[in-house]
Write a structure and sequence with these properties.
Blueprint: E1 3-6, H1 9-17, E2 25-28, H2 34-42, E3 51-54
Parallel strand pairs: 1-2, 2-3
C-alpha cells in the first residue's frame, strides 16, 4: 500500500480536500500537538484515509 508523506498541516488539508488521500496510508512529519493529532484523526473516516501516523519527536537533547 502507498504511504503519502505530509510535511505540513497545509499539505495534509490540501490533499485531503482534493480527495488525494482516499484509501491510502498517510504519515505526518510536521510537529503536532495532541489536540491537532486528535483533530486530524477525527477526519480519517470523512476523507476515507486508510491510516494516519505521526512522527514523534523528542523534546530537548
Amino acid at each position: 500500500m502507498k504511504t503519502i508523506i505530509c510535511n505540513s498541516v497545509q499539505s495534509f488539508w490540501d490533499m485531503a480536500d482534493n480527495h488525494l488521500l482516499e484509501g491510502l496510508d498517510v504519515h505526518c512529519t510536521f510537529p503536532a500537538t495532541d489536540g491537532l493529532r486528535a483533530f486530524i484523526l477525527d477526519y480519517k473516516e470523512k476523507y476515507a484515509i486508510r491510516s494516519i501516523s505521526f512522527t514523534s519527536v523528542g523534546v530537548g537533547s
